[in-house]
Structure to design on (147 residues):
């Protein structure tokens, strides 16, 4: 079975771009969450995780849609690919397609790319939170130019 996972951070965000990409790939069942990627305590992700089994494929649009917490991304990736023996395809990063390159070198390259992108996703989440704290109307300081 080919499953898709779609995530946006807020109810106002539109997930349609991700859904279109999933359908073009041939995903049979899509799970969608509208909440932060800070952890994996997301209802639809948890349903998906319970369904995944050996030989299934999980498709995500990009790694930051999967999650934004470095340690948890690595842990969930391992749970899916090693424990459940399902494959993961990250559409915008062909190196992160566990269906390919199952030899040692291929796995090494995929692991390095995964770790780097998980780091970038968490760093971006931290920067977004910092900008939100600093923005006017969210407790930040507003300065008028020329004042």
């Amino acid at each position: 079975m080919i499953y898709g996972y779609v995530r946006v951070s807020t109810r106002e965000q539109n997930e349609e771009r991700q859904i279109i990409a999933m359908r073009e790939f041939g995903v049979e069942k899509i799970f969608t969450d509208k909440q932060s990627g800070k952890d994996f305590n997301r209802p639809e992700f948890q349903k998906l995780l319970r369904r995944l089994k050996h030989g299934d494929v999980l498709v995500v649009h990009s790694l930051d849609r999967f999650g934004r917490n470095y340690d948890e991304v690595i842990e969930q990736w391992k749970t899916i690919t090693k424990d459940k023996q399902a494959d993961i395809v990250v559409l915008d990063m062909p190196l992160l397609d566990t269906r390919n390159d199952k030899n040692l070198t291929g796995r090494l390259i995929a692991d390095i790319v995964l770790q780097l992108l998980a780091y970038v996703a968490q760093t971006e989440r931290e920067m977004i939170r910092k900008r939100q704290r600093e923005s006017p109307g969210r407790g930040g300081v507003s300065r008028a130019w020329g004042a």
